[in-house]
Amino acid sequence: MDTRRLRLLLELSRLGSMRAVADELYLTTSTVSQQLAVLAREAGTALLEPDGRRVRLTPAGRRLAEHAVTILAAVDAARLDLDPDAEPAGVLRVAGFATAVRRSLMPVAAEVAARQPRLRLLIHEHEPAEAFARLDSDDVDLALVYDYDLAPAAFDPAIETSPLWTAAWSLGVPARDAEQTPAGDALAVFARFRDRSWIVNSRNTADERAVRTVASMAGFEPAVAHRADSLDLVEDLIVAGLGVGLLPEDHPTRPGVALLPLDRPGITLRSYTAVRRGRATWPPLALILRMLQAHDEDGSLPRAAKPLPLPFL
After folding, report:
1. Residue-wise pLDDT tens digits, 76-113
2. Which of 37, 75, 204, 240 would you call most buried, defined as having the most Cβ atoms within 10 angstroms of its Cβ?
3. What angle do CA 251, 189, 129 make, to 5 degrees?
């Protein structure tokens, strides 16, 4: 049923005559009559009956007018909820990798809890492939994902992305090996450990692709032996002498682990937000996207983080 016709029926039940409805809504009486006749056909039952020179609602008409109160109120509420200028309310589901959740989302979540009591965030920790799958299946509304400049991601055209922060990554090695390794030159650093076992992420292939790219430039094929999702576990493996692997340059390391800076080429992690195309104007999502961008632009990020254009977007 057309909600505009339901409103005519509701006004008729309130005002008592088609002429009064026409005057109230700046229509002609014949237009009101025609639209109510269409509504009766849509409803499959008579809604009006003669009452002298006027009409009155049938029992079915009165019942539908009662329903119209609820229906029109729900439609008005939906319009308000979807209005880009409306107060954000409801549940926003976010999937993101752990570093972005801690670095970007948690400060935003604290502010939302304090200032937006009608908005609730649900946070799920996922690597990019998992987050994109949940975004595609509509299980989340926002994904916080990443790639590396040496292993750029390819995106579905249905996804809109915006850059957040970047972070340089270094090679984590046993501390006892650090003094014997030239710093800075990535190819020389990698070549120094060409015969070691290598540690890569168990839930994402981006860092492995970056490692293999630099190793190839240095003239060897890395022997990937261990896969771990936890940076703490990567450090444990390094301390135990079981391999070397990439670690964030700004990540505090435990004793026994040294970080060797990489340059020419460097390896940079790039983080960004991802949403389904066309959904970014939904008030809760628009608010969180603005807050994430503002948080990363106000200098609150660690020293290594800075904006970087994503050429593949």
Report:
1. 777 766 666 677 888 999 999 999 999 999 999 999 99
2. 204
3. 50
Helix, strand, or coil (residue 268): strand
> Given this structure, which CATH class describes domain 90-164+269-297?
alpha beta
Domain boundaries, the chain: 3-82, 90-164+269-297, 166-268
Q: Which of 144, 136, 148, 140 is nearest to 106 (CA)?
A: 144
Residue 305 has pLDDT above 50, yes or no: no
- Which phi and psi (to 5°) does residue 105 adopt? -80, -40
Q: Which CATH superfamily is domain 166-268 in?
A: Periplasmic binding protein-like II (3.40.190.10)
Name the fold adopted by 3-82: Arc Repressor Mutant, subunit A (1.10.10)
In this predicted structure, what is the pLDDT of residue 30? 93
Of all helices (H) and strands (E), which one includes residue 308? none
What's the alpha-carbon Rg for the chain, to the nearest Å? 30
From 188, 165, 207, 167, select the one nearest 260 (Cα to Cα): 188
Phi, psi of 3, deg, nearest 5: -65, -25
